[in-house]
Design the sequence.
C-alpha cells in the first residue's frame, strides 16, 4: 500500500513540475515576468490612489487590438416609416465580445408625393426585397468574412467588401443569362416577317409651300426630336449592405480610438496624416418646394435652397434661416384683408385704381419668366412694388398674390406651397428678407433644384415648367439665362436638364458659368460608375452631388472626392430623399472636406438630427482651435481658368455686411448655447 501511495505522489509531483515548467515557458514567451516586475516597481514609486485602476490601465495598453467578432443586420424604419437597413458591430475586446456601435443607411429609392397606388405597391415590394437581401448578406456571409479583422484597417475591410460585391454581381449576371436562355428555349421561334409595302409618297408640293408642309396641318418648323431617356443604372438587390458595413466599421474604429468619426474620415482622406484645420461645409438648406407635386401651377422649383454667407458660422446661418422660415410660416397663415365696402356693397377704392394688393397681383401675375402674355413690363412691376412704401407692406402684398396659400410639409423637410409663377415665390422671399434687414445676394444666396428629369413630358418632347406651359430644351436655356439675369441672387442651378440633354448642359454652362454654379445631382452618374470611368465626364457642370448609398464604401467616397478636387470641381454631399435619424452623414462631409452639404429643410426629426450634429462639430473644432475658414463664392470657367482658382478665392472679401451683423446681434442676444433645434425626435 505504501509503495502504491508513494508511486502516486511521485507521479503527481512530476505532473505538477511539468505544468509549472509549461507555465514558466508560456509566461516567458509573452514577457510576463519582466513586465510584471516593471509594473510593480513603477506602482510602488508612483503610489497612485487607485492602485488597481493604475494596474488596469497598464494592462489595457498591453491587450491585443480589438477585432470584429460579429456583424448583425436588422430591418428598421427610416424617417418616413419605410423599411431600411441597420448594421451593428460587435468586437472582441480583452477576450470578451462587446457591442460597439450601429449605423442606419437610407435606401436609394426616390419618394413620390403623388404616385399611384400601383407604383407605391410595386416600390414597397422592391424595397422590402432589397432590405431583406442586404440583411441576409450581412448575417450570413459578410460577418464570417470579416471575423477577426481589425476595424482600424479600413482599406482591408473595403477591399474585402468590394470583392464580395463583385462576386455577387457576377452571380446575378450568370443567373440572368441562365433565365434568358431557358426562356428562349421554351418559346417557339416566331414566323418570318413579311416585308411591308412602302408607304405612299407625300402629295406633290404646290408652288409657294414651305418644306415640311402636310395637308390638314399648320405650317410649322420641324423641331429636333429629344434624346430618349437612358435606362436607369441597375442597382443590385442587397447592395446597401456594402455601404452600411463600411460605414459601421469606420464608426467602430473611431469609437475604439476615442476620436470623432469626422477625424477618422479626415485621416483616410489625408493618408493617415491629421490635417491642421478642418472647414465646415457651407449649408444648402431647403426652404420651400414648388415642384411637380406642389398644388400650384409652377413645377420648376422642386427646392428653393438658401445658402448663408460664407462669413457666418454654421450656428448663425441656421438661426438666420430659422427666422426666415418662421416668417414664411406666418405668411402662410395670414388671411387677405377684407375689401372695404359701402352700404350698397360697392368697393370704396378710388375710381380707376385697384387696391394695393390687387395691383401687385395684376403686375406679378401678368408678367412672368414663363412666358405669360402681358403688356406690362418688369419696370412697371418694380414701380408697383415701390409704391407700397415699406418692406412690411411688400411682404403682405406679395403674400396676397398667392392667396389662398396652402402648404404642407415635404419629406425633404420644407414647405410645399402653391405658386403660379417664379416671381411670386422669389418676391415673397425677397420681402421677408427685407423685413429682417437682409439682402438677397449679399447676406444670403439662393439655389434652385429644378429636377429637370421630373419636368420632361415625353409625349410632347418638352419640359412642363408650369401647368400647361411647355418649353423645348433650347428654350429652357433662354429661360434660365433670363432667370439669372433678373435674379442674380440665385448662384446655383441643380439639375436644370435631364442628363440626356448634353448639348443644353454645354450651352447653359457656357452662358452662366461665370455667374452661377451648374450642379449635376440626379443627372450625374453613380459614384461606382464615375470611379470606373476614372473621371467626372458628362454632363458639363461645376460640381456633383454625391450620396452615400448602396455599395459605396468609405474608400470610394475618399477616391471620388479626390477626383472632384483634382478637377477643380465642387463636391456636395447630399442626403437621400428617405433619410434616417443616423447623423453619420455630417461627419463624412466634414472629414471629406466637401464644399457644401445638402440636408433638406430645418424640419423633420431625421433631418434636424443632422443639423444638430453640424452645430456640435463646429463647437468641437472651435474649442480645439482647428476650425478653418471658408472662402467666398467665386465663379470662373473651371476648365479654362482652373489654375486661377486659388488666386481668385484668396482675393475675395470675407467680411460680413453691417446689416448682417445687426441681424445676428439682435438674434443672438437672448439665445443660450444649447442646441437651438430642440429634440431630434420632434419636428420644429
Sequence:
Amino acid at each position: 500500500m505504501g509503495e502504491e501511495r508513494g508511486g502516486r505522489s511521485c507521479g503527481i509531483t512530476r505532473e505538477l513540475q511539468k505544468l509549472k515548467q509549461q507555465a514558466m515557458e508560456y509566461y516567458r514567451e509573452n514577457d510576463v515576468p519582466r513586465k510584471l516586475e516593471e509594473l510593480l516597481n513603477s506602482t510602488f514609486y508612483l503610489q497612485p490612489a487607485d492602485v488597481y485602476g493604475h494596474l488596469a490601465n497598464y494592462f489595457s495598453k498591453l491587450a491585443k487590438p480589438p477585432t470584429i467578432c460579429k456583424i448583425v443586420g436588422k430591418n428598421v424604419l427610416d424617417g418616413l416609416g419605410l423599411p431600411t437597413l441597420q448594421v451593428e458591430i460587435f468586437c472582441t475586446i480583452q477576450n470578451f465580445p462587446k457591442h460597439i456601435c450601429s449605423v442606419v443607411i437610407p435606401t436609394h429609392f426616390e419618394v413620390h408625393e403623388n404616385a399611384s397606388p400601383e407604383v407605391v405597391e410595386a416600390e414597397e415590394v422592391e424595397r422590402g426585397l432589397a432590405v431583406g437581401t442586404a440583411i441576409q448578406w450581412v448575417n450570413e456571409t459578410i460577418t464570417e468574412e470579416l471575423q477577426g479583422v481589425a476595424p482600424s484597417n479600413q482599406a482591408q475591410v473595403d477591399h474585402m467588401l468590394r470583392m464580395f460585391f463583385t462576386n455577387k454581381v457576377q452571380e446575378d449576371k450568370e443567373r440572368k443569362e441562365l433565365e434568358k436562355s431557358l426562356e428562349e428555349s421554351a418559346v417557339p421561334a416566331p414566323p418570318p416577317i413579311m416585308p411591308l409595302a412602302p408607304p405612299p409618297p407625300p402629295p406633290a408640293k404646290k408652288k409657294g409651300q414651305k418644306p415640311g408642309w402636310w395637308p390638314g396641318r399648320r405650317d410649322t418648323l420641324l423641331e429636333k426630336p429629344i434624346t430618349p431617356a437612358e435606362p436607369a443604372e441597375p442597382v443590385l438587390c442587397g447592395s446597401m449592405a456594402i455601404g452600411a458595413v463600411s460605414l459601421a466599421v469606420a464608426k467602430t474604429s473611431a469609437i475604439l480610438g476615442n476620436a470623432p468619426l469626422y477625424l477618422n474620415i479626415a485621416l483616410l482622406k489625408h493618408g493617415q496624416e491629421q490635417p491642421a484645420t478642418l472647414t465646415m461645409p457651407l449649408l444648402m438648406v431647403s426652404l420651400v418646394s414648388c415642384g411637380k407635386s406642389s398644388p400650384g401651377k409652377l413645377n420648376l422649383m422642386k427646392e428653393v435652397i438658401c445658402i448663408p454667407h460664407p462669413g457666418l458660422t454654421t450656428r448663425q446661418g441656421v438661426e438666420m434661416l430659422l427666422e426666415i422660415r418662421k416668417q414664411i410660416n406666418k405668411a402662410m397663415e395670414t388671411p387677405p384683408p377684407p375689401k372695404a365696402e359701402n352700404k350698397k356693397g360697392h368697393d370704396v377704392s378710388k375710381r380707376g385704381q385697384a387696391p394695393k394688393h390687387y395691383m401687385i397681383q395684376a403686375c406679378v401675375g401678368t408678367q412672368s419668366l414663363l412666358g405669360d402674355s402681358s403688356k406690362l413690363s418688369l419696370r412697371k412691376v418694380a414701380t408697383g412694388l415701390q409704391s407700397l412704401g415699406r418692406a412690411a407692406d411688400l411682404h403682405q402684398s406679395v403674400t396676397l398674390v398667392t392667396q389662398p396659400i396652402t402648404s404642407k410639409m415635404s419629406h425633404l423637410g420644407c414647405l410645399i406651397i402653391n405658386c403660379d409663377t417664379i416671381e411670386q415665390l422669389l418676391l415673397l422671399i425677397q420681402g421677408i428678407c427685407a423685413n429682417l434687414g437682409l439682402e438677397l445676394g449679399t447676406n444670403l444666396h439662393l439655389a434652385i433644384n429644378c429636377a429637370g428629369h421630373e419636368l420632361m413630358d415625353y409625349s410632347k418632347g418638352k419640359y412642363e415648367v408650369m401647368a400647361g406651359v411647355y418649353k423645348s430644351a433650347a428654350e429652357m436655356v433662354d429661360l434660365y439665362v433670363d432667370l439669372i439675369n433678373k435674379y442674380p441672387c440665385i448662384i446655383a442651378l441643380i439639375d436644370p436638364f435631364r442628363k440626356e440633354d448634353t448639348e443644353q448642359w454645354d450651352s447653359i454652362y457656357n452662358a452662366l458659368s461665370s455667374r452661377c454654379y451648374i450642379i449635376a445631382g440626379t443627372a450625374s452618374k453613380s459614384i461606382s460608375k464615375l470611379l470606373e470611368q476614372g473621371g467626372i465626364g458628362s454632363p458639363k457642370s461645376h460640381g456633383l452631388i454625391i450620396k452615400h448609398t448602396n455599395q459605396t464604401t468609405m474608400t470610394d467616397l475618399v477616391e471620388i472626392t479626390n477626383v472632384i478636387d483634382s478637377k477643380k470641381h465642387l463636391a456636395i454631399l447630399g442626403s437621400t430623399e428617405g433619410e434616417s435619424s443616423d447623423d453619420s452623414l455630417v461627419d463624412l462631409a466634414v472629414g471629406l472636406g466637401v464644399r457644401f452639404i445638402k440636408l433638406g429643410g430645418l424640419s423633420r426629426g431625421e433631418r434636424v438630427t443632422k443639423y444638430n450634429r453640424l452645430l456640435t462639430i463646429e463647437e468641437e473644432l472651435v474649442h480645439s482651435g482647428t476650425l478653418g475658414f471658408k472662402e467666398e463664392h467665386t465663379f470662373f470657367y473651371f476648365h479654362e481658368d482652373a489654375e486661377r482658382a486659388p488666386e481668385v478665392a484668396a482675393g475675395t472679401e470675407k467680411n460680413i455686411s453691417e446689416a448682417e451683423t445687426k441681424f445676428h446681434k439682435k438674434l443672438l442676444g437672448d439665445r443660450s448655447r444649447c442646441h437651438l433645434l430642440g429634440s431630434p425626435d420632434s419636428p420644429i
The chain has a mean pLDDT of 80. The CA atoms of residues 196 and 268 lie 64 Å apart. The chain is about 45% helix and 15% strand.
